[in-house]
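Tokens in:
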């Protein structure tokens, strides 16, 4: 059977300031902070996860807030734009909301869709588009009603240094279909209803520089551990060098870099974010893997305090 990912599992990026990131993604965009943990490889740094009410794969964006990080430059070998999807008819609400919050945005079109493009406080590029696909969000915050709320990812725009090779990986390894080309971009479709439309530049792009305001990697969905094992074998059979399986507590992961320079992860849907705390209170407490629990006091003392809060403009 041909392997086909259903789309994006999550996107992970570098930022500088934890509270500014919380205020933007939870306060301005209305996403739920579903997990507050640490970078397992650098426990002095938070790892923050934002998504829908349950942290469903296809809705999750994650951040490493590193105050001393250099400023990155978006370019080839990266996710250039992360696309969020909202219900049909909701785009005017979001324009008005960004105006109220004083957030600058631009309007553009791609593949016949109107897009609202903006940047987060560190310069990460985002866009919002209306589509019917995907379940409505069950999370409301800061005056954003559920029928206008972000449902999850619409997809992403990949900036490749070798777009023909990136396209080949999307089609021949990840099992996506090439469905359109318009201007500077080709569009590929995965089988899912969120995070399923991926655009890739058709001309090579100069390499970017990693740092604050750039995406570290994009993760694709595997349905379970057995499916994950098949993915690893397929990646290896196609000449790439995937990492061993890595336990990320809330999913298992493998990583490989495709030839256009973009770091790909394949992550399992289970076990999910409610494995170590009640679903009702996810994101409120700092969660640590068991091997760090003995160092909790030291870790907590070294992390800046953060809170999910309603923005001042939403209190008026």
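Residues out:
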């Amino acid at each position: 059977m041909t392997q086909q990912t259903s789309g994006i599992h999550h996107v992970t990026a570098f930022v500088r300031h934890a509270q500014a990131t919380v205020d933007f993604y939870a306060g301005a965009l209305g996403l739920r902070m579903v997990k507050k943990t640490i970078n397992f490889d650098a426990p002095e740094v938070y790892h923050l996860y934002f998504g829908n009410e349950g942290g469903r794969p296809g809705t999750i964006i994650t951040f490493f807030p590193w105050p001393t990080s250099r400023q990155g430059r978006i370019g080839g070998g990266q996710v250039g734009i992360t696309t969020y999807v909202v219900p049909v008819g909701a785009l005017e609400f979001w324009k008005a909301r960004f105006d109220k919050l004083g957030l600058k945005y631009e309007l553009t079109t791609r593949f016949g869709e109107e897009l609202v493009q903006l940047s987060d406080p560190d310069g990460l590029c985002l866009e919002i588009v209306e589509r019917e696909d995907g379940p409505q969000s069950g999370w409301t915050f800061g005056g954003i009603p559920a029928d206008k709320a972000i449902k999850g990812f619409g997809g992403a725009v990949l900036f490749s240094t070798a777009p023909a090779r990136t396209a080949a990986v999307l089609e021949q390894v990840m099992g996506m279909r090439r469905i359109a080309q318009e201007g500077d971009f080709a569009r590929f479709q995965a089988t899912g209803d969120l995070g399923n439309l991926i655009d890739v530049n058709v001309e090579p792009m100069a390499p970017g520089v990693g740092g604050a305001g750039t995406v570290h990697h994009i993760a694709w969905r595997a349905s379970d551990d057995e499916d994950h094992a098949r993915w690893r074998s397929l990646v290896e059979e196609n000449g790439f060098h995937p990492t061993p399986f890595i336990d990320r507590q809330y999913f298992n992961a493998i990583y490989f870099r495709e030839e256009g320079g973009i770091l790909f992860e394949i992550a399992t849907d289970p076990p999910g974010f409610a494995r170590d705390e009640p679903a009702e209170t996810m994101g409120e407490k700092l969660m640590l893997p068991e091997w760090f629990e003995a160092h909790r006091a030291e870790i907590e003392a070294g992390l800046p305090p953060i809170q999910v809060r309603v923005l001042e403009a939403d209190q008026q």
